[in-house]
Amino acid sequence: MKILSNLGIVVGVGALLISCNDKNLTEVQVPLPEDVATSVQMGNPSDVIANEGTFKMIPLPYSYGALEPHIDARTMEIHFSKHHLGYTNKLNAAVAGTPLAKLTIEEILTSLDLENKTLRNNAGGYYNHNLFWASMSSKGGGEPSGALSAAIIKHFGSYNDFKNQLTETANKQFGSGWAWLVIDKTGKLSVVGTANQDNPLMPNIGVSGTPILALDVWEHAYYLQYQNKRNNYVEAFFKVINWNAVAKRYDDALAKEIPNTIQ
Ligand code: MN
């Protein structure tokens, strides 16, 4: 940081005093305070523990800073250790002492009563974020390969057509929500959007399918780094998509959901 200081004139705390006598002005280097010049201390994702209950914090498979420069470490830290922890704790509180505590998160979502807003928001928040973290990798980006690539070309026309659909769905989602790549029971891929923490597994929300890729478009997912420019965040997301993980979910969903035509 460069400031002008008059030799012999005090540079005040919190205020810069400059003499009116320009002849005496000298440019000096003022070092930044150490805590500003160095990066902010980050916690460790594996140190984030949920309150006792059915659902645990699944550790991030990478550090908070692993997705930089596309998604910044501070956003990841707050998103995981504050927002996601909050959903997990509230979900545990909502199911504690009820038959729901013995169900999987998928069973809770597929049998959800939409009028149960606490469960809807927090079961959705828990599942959605876990899939979101798993949808990204520091070694991500590029394009899918193999059977998933062929399916994307079959159902969207090309990878770029798919990318355009996901981008448009993410950018046009009004307010908070999610954009998804889902597979239906016939193996068809499609892109859908949901509001708030809704999820395509929930009954009667207007879209359906098994999610294999999740994109969080809540402002808390990008605002520190991208402010109002959601489109820039969405573009950055494509650079960290973990296509290997998406392909694994695609294969698993196919194996589980497509009826055996021989029977
Ligand atoms: Mn989020």
Describe this structure in words.
- With 263 residues, the chain is an alpha+beta fold.
- It has two domains: 2-28, no CATH class; 44-60 and 121-263, minor pseudopilin epsh fold (3-Layer(bab) Sandwich), CATH 3.55.40.20.
- Helix content is 39%, strand content 12%.
- The chain has nine helices and five strands, in the order ββααααααβββααα.
- It has helices at residues 34-37, 73-95, 105-110, 117-134, 146-156, 159-172, 223-226, 230-237, 243-257, and strands at residues 2-6, 25-29, 177-183, 189-195, 210-216.
- Strand 3 and strand 4 (189-195) form a beta hairpin.
- Helix 2 crosses helix 4 (117-134).
- The chain binds manganese (II) ion.
Poorly predicted regions are 1-21, 34-38
* Overall pLDDT level: 88
Q: Characterize the overall form.
A: globular
> Would you tell me the structural class of the helices and strands?
alpha+beta
For the termini, the CA-CA separation is: 74 Å
H/E series: EEHHHHHHEEEHHH
Could you give a short account of the major beta sheet?
3 strands, antiparallel
Give the key terms:
single chain; 263 residues; alpha+beta; minor pseudopilin epsh fold; 2 domains; two-stranded antiparallel sheet; 5 strands; disordered N terminus
